[in-house]
Amino acid sequence: MKKNTLLSVMFVFLVISFAGAQKSQHILMQTLTNPQSGHETIAEFGTPNPIILPESVTGTKGAEINWSYADPVAIGSKISVSDQTGNTFMSWWLNDSRVSLYGNTATPAWEQFNVSQWEYPIDQTNDGEWLAVGYDSVAQVYMPTSSVIFWEVIVDGDVMGLKLSDDGEHLFVAENNYDNMGNSRVSAYTIGENTPDWTTEFDGPGTVFNGSDDGSRMVLCQYSGYNKMWVLDGANGDILFDDYYKNQNPPALSYDGSIILNGDYSGYAYLYEYNESLNTYEEKWNFKVGGGGTSVWVVGMAVSGDGNTVAVGTLVFLSGGGFNGEMYLFNSWSPVPLWVYSGAGDEICSIDFSYDGSLIAAASWGPLDNSKPDMFLFRKESAVPYFDILTQGSFNAVDLSMDGTLCSVTGKAVHARVLGSGGLLYNVNSDPGGGALNGSVTLQNAADFSNVKIVVNELEDYFGYSKEDGSYQLKYIPEGTYSITASLIGYYPVTITDVEITEGSVTDLDFNLQETGNPPYGLLATKGAGLSINLNWQSDNANDIEGFNIYRKTIEGDLFPEEPVATVGNDVFNWEDIDVLPITNYYYAVTAIIDTDVESPYSNVDEGWMSSGFVTDNISAYVGTTPVIDGTISAGEWDDAFYLDASDFLGKYDNLPNPVSSVPMYFKVNAALTELYVACINQNDTQLEDHDEVALYIDDNNDGTYPPAGDDSEGNYWAAYYSSGSEIRYRPIHDNGGVGTVVYLEDPQIAVSDESGVIVYEFVIPMGSDSTWQINPGPDDKSSLFIFTLDDPTNFDGYWPCWNQEIFAPLDYGTITYGASDDLPTAPEEINISWVSDPDVLVTLDWSQPPINDFNHFNVYYSLDGSNWDLLAETIGTQLFYVPGNVTYAEFYVTTVDNGSQESDPSEIVVFDLLNEINNYQSELNLSAYPNPAHELVNIEVVITEPGSYSINLFDQAGRMVKSVYSGNLKTGKHIIQLNTETKLKAGIYFLKIAGEKTQFTEKIILKGN
Q: Homologous superfamily of 26-51+66-429 in CATH?
């Protein structure tokens, strides 16, 4: 038996008022939504309204409603369909609580009533041969032929989730309060056996539970306490992975559990992939959804059975009040949406795929005025539904069969936000109809025939891609005669006309594509050279082409997009990419434009990135002079303060990146550490408006969590402008996500002005332990800190640290040190020099970014004789290009300069000697770390060319060694060493350094909160 310990804190989201109830009445229900805490369900006794079963249906020739049913008092909750049996298994609750099994009519084959007062879980295997239901303290298994219980198990707690393995051999049960102390556990049962195969226990109540269809992975989530998602091994209950969780909706899994999709109430979707060699999951990507409101939640989540396609549904809180919803569709290997469906009117709460991801079903609450559909069917290629249903209610759950031909959807007969009851159930033939196009593609002089795009030219969004062996299939094409084009960059496209597609039939069509040849070559992208990325390439046939297309992507394994990021003329062999973000790697390729829709193959792919030396997660609030709080930055007033670039240059919260250095901030303290002085300049905001503000969220004692309810000693400050008088407010925050009573600081020291043409804030936050609203630092005078700057009402112009994704979770906050010393910066290390001589000599210098949190720039010095040194350049990057002209010998070194103009000692000297071909000793080490950013486990891949003794150490941004990772002998070749970061390492920027055999190498990594 295993036990995982967390805080025993519980939210109660269902509140029922039965005052004055009469037995002849039924329970009516409505859902309220709080952007800060989640959904809350309110219920009371009353008389239900008559149910209207009307629908407005639009769809293709194939898709249609098979049958529908309206329940007068019960609400449809959970649902599952099987294409093999044609059955729909579902649960009704609130009134006349029961499970029902339907076949091909609205008359149930059988029903089984229960006495549950709450929503309860059900499941059905994909073949429809096994059914399960759990309520109160019982879990039951049925066969479709009878309502007689096949097997049941009585548990100690309340069943809150269950999952059948698709082979029908195992049932996984999640229960709450099994020990009468509010704790939870997950157990695995062999069906027919009442003793569990394994049990894993957790402190605190579970919120949602899900699992992979094959039974290999189970997921328990807790929306309270530590807000955790745990992934369990279905074979033995071992915890394989955990991560932060803030939702009331279950994560989604692929059939085999190798892909997991999670989302949160901050609007982020996270995709995790199983790493078999490490026996854990790694975050592959995350994505911030939009919608244009004041905030947004991820609610519905789905992963196709094959794991290749994922989708999220959202709830958008509109700035003027009200709601909206969107659905985002992705390939699982890329955070770039394939398409977005917008304007659902309220949350899209449930999504499901056919196994191959070609068809998608979505259920929505719809707008309050019932003016838009509540259920949709999509093809993967198009954001335009091929079928939808509009009702007077709201749908709660939808399920699509594995082959995509059968869909059922259920919900409430009146809108979810309206007090009422009654339920809706629709069974839909979800087959879009049409015919299919099958065939194969071959490519001249290629072994891999994948990614050829096949398009039906006369139809919008009917296309597909070939596989590695060249095979392809396009389904659901309306009957007709079409022209079909096959195309791939680097090959001449081929179009075949008069292709007949017949309803219900398959048409075969093969293609052979000839290569175009003569790609550009020698593509080089700068790597940290400045605030942009510069590309250079060569081409031997520029006079014979029309120009060059430049392509860019951010995921190495993703395809390049179909549209280039830029196009230049045939006499241009360089391009500057200014639309880039810090701490983001980009991959580039260039093609030659031969003719309309004809391009050469891609050039070589090269990786580039902009400088990110200004990115830090540590603030050193120096002791300085007392500023005049007047909303004006006077000359010299803040020169003794710590400078921070707090710009939201990643667009982390609102998907709207702001320019680097557009929100500078300054921090300092008095000698007694009783006042924190802060200044902020929002250069993105030029006009004062009520509620323009700077917000500081402070975990005072720097322990990575807020205190429990009742302890108001930590929270956030709002320094806000109002025309009636600016104010500083303090709000306590608790570890369960709750908040305390807001305190208005008396006679606040704050001034906000736009006299300079931009918004300037100056304010003071009191420090001490006399009042809970004062900052009371932890050990070493440190606190955890998160900051945003708001241009009212919704524009987040400042956001620090840039990677923090959870405003109420200090795990990924930065650190502020009060009264810190302003130390001399560290010299750059690992300086290297190289040059090319064809056609002209070009010298490249590069070096590593030293650990520093107040970086300003590097000085690069050179000497032609080794004695007399001159300043060659100032640069913020770690790469510099030098054209020597007639110079054949030079020496170089680099220094680091901080924001206080302090300069480090020189780096090592490197030599350029063209005549003797003397190059400095190039590092024979290669170290990379993944995933990066990382949570708990970091894989360090080291390539050794010189065997010997090596050490690998982890340093923080201040240059302090925080962990010894490895020390010993390494042989020639590749080595993978694991770094476990879960013990006492805060989120932030770190540096991995390997040293040995007269050489060293450093890699920057970002650790996220655990």
A: YVTN repeat-like/Quinoprotein amine dehydrogenase (2.130.10.10)
